Amino acid sequence: MICMKNVLIIGFSSRNIVKSANNAGYNVYSIDSFCDFDCKYYSQSTRIIDLGDKTKSCIFQEIHELTKSFNVEFDFAILGAGFEHIDFSEFSVPVLNNKYDVLEKVSNKLNLSKELSKLNIPHPKIYCPYDIEECVFPLIAKPILGGGGTFNQKLEDLEDYYKFKDYLEVSCGKLTDFILQDFVEGVPASVSLISAGSKSVPLSINEQLIGIEWLGSYAYTYCGNITPLKNFYSKQMEKIAANISNELNLFGSNGVDFILTKNGPIVIEVNARFQGSLDTVELATNLNLFNAHVNSFRSILPSVNPLNSSYAGKAVAYAVKDFVVTDSIFETILGENSSDIPNKGDFICTGDPITSIIKAGFSRHEVLQSLWTSSKTIYNSINTSGEVK
Q1: For the chain, which residues make up each domain, given as ranges?
Q2: In this predicted model, what pLDDT tens digit does every residue of 45-59 receive, in sequence order?
Q3: Global pTM?
Q4: What's the rounded Cα separation, in Å, for the pair 81 and 17?
Q5: 6-97 sits in which CATH class?
Q6: What is the b/e burial string over 108-137, where b = at least 16 CB atoms within 10 angstroms of the residue's CB?
Q7: Positive or negative CA dihedral for 27, 31, 36, 37?
């Protein structure tokens, strides 16, 4: 068997995959939109890419050029979030990800709804944004493509709908880029699993932290995870996630997002690539997800110890004001066991992620309290810095 050593990670924010690959013993090179301090630490070399409003072909060409600039012979590449909608079938490096046609099915919310309907899996009803007379409020407007929740908007009634429509027109957005979906009340959660075509292994059930006020986030923005989430529907969620994975012939690290309602779990999204929960899943299970991802393409699946009782949490802190990362802010973030660490001198805009706080403990309460305490320390450092704008 050929020993694969040099790996290229491409993602909007790729630090968690880069770290996992580094821990697995690979020589890691990365292309992402932040090139955070710790991403550079775990990489042999990094390149930054600004996605902006570029076309798919322009992004692909830029990645091709950046890849050549490393002057390295790569054994394979792995794509993270942000690149699901670009076809890498003609890329110069072998890619260990789900195939493009599969990604088109699951990352497009309209296409995913059709697939879930075929499988008789409960999911929110989707409406055409122009057939408003057929809608039943409340609704949630979501981009057809992309996740993270930043652009999600709850619509309570027709007045909210027309306000949202007007906002899109003013901001040069398109209503056709959004779907309207039944608003589902409940607990946000996810199942992380490793897939190998017609078989898969659920690794963990994760609580999702969404729109957390003390993390400076918007209403439906992803703010992190706590792993594991123990609940009455655990076995049902694992079965549903595995069924989706097996039927769609997924490979590697995948995740299925749910809302846990009083009537049971409802599937919201499928993330057919590494997820933001990677950090907490690895901490809670003692598995290296990068190795598990690579091995799945050889039809090798990991074994999971169901008795593992440790808890892990990740909290993404967002900027509530514009500021520059001073020496003191940098040292504070570094001292709070954070990841996705900004570089000294970086300018952070309001609403942008500052850092990800990672904690472990023996209970959900202990982990959540530790995340909260560290977030307050970081925000206090930002507020007292002379460089706040």
Answers
A1: 6-97, 125-182, 185-309, 311-389
A2: 999 999 988 999 999
A3: 0.94
A4: 10
A5: alpha beta
A6: bbeebbebbeeeebebbebbebeebeebee
A7: positive
